[in-house]
Every structure is written in structure tokens, then in C-alpha cells.
Design a protein that fits this description.
- The chain contains three helices and six strands.
- It is an alpha+beta fold.
- It has a two-stranded antiparallel sheet. It has a two-stranded antiparallel sheet with strand order 3-4. Strands 5-6 form a two-stranded antiparallel sheet.
């Protein structure tokens, strides 16, 4: 304790990570701390940030993958929209009940133009029974995290 007080009256600070005593210029300033600087020196802060990033990278990549799948779903819907517009696909009546107003439903989002035509209620019923079609993902509004800069 004695040593810590002594350090705080000088420009030297001890890093809580590497335990080295360094000039406070080697620490990130932090005004809400008694010592006026971050408890880790800049070197250790940077190492911590890198380690933190590395450990999160796997989760980060997985989420990126999910995000890509979500765009597959979006692409599939756009492909149908476009195919209908150019006449490559023709909207059909519901295969279950013959209703005229139908949605293009994908059994597999990786095959954008392989659709079945279902009215809204049969479409909802399909998903209630089978859940999400393969290759779809419901992750929305995901943006990659920014690497923390210390
Ligand atoms: Zn350090
Ligand atoms: Zn129907
Ligand atoms: Zn569907």
C-alpha cells in the first residue's frame, strides 16, 4: 500500500497485468481513476484486446456465416421476384386449396427458383409444421463488431 501511494504521487505507475513500473505515458489516460490512468499499460491493454478479439473470432465467424445464410434467403426471394417479372416463373394457385393469392415458398433457400405456391394460411401452416426451410437464417440487422481500439 505504501508503495502504491508513493507511485501515485510520481509519474510512475505499476501495470496490474505485467507488474512493471512504467512512466504514466505508457498507460492510457483514464480520468475517473485515482491514478489517472488505466490499470494496464498500453502494451498489456493491446495484448488483452488482441486476445479478446481472437477468442471472439470463432463466434464472430459463426455469426458471419449465419448472416451470409440470411442473405441467401433474401437473394432467393429477390430471384423469385425477378423471375416472375421476366416471366420465367408463373405465379400459381395454392397447391393445397387452389386459392389464387399465393406466396412463393422455398423448400430450400439454396435453390432460389424451386418454389411451391401456397396461400398465406397454407404457407404459415407449412412453416408451423416444418419450421424454417433449409439454408435460411433468421439473423437480422447484424453488423460485424468493431475491433476495440485501446
Ligand atoms: Zn503491462
Ligand atoms: Zn391454401
Ligand atoms: Zn415458406
Amino acid at each position: 500500500m505504501q508503495q502504491l501511494e508513493m507511485l501515485e504521487t510520481t509519474d510512475e505507475r505499476r501495470c496490474c497485468a505485467c507488474k512493471e513500473v512504467k512512466h504514466k505515458d505508457f498507460f492510457t489516460k483514464q480520468r475517473d481513476r485515482a491514478s489517472g490512468v488505466h490499470s494496464k499499460c498500453k502494451n498489456c491493454s493491446r495484448a488483452y484486446s488482441r486476445e479478446h478479439y481472437r477468442r471472439n473470432k470463432e463466434a464472430y465467424l459463426k455469426r458471419g456465416d449465419a448472416y451470409a445464410k440470411n442473405s441467401v434467403k433474401t437473394k432467393a426471394k429477390k430471384a423469385v421476384h425477378y423471375a416472375l417479372k421476366i416471366g420465367k416463373l408463373i405465379r400459381q394457385s395454392c397447391e393445397k386449396c387452389g386459392a389464387v393469392k399465393t406466396d412463393a415458398h422455398h423448400d430450400d433457400y439454396a435453390k432460389p427458383l424451386e418454389v411451391r405456391w401456397l396461400c398465406r394460411s397454407h404457407h404459415i401452416a407449412w412453416h408451423a409444421e416444418f419450421g424454417e426451410a433449409p439454408n435460411a437464417c433468421t439473423v437480422r440487422h447484424w453488423t460485424p463488431p468493431q475491433e476495440q481500439i485501446l
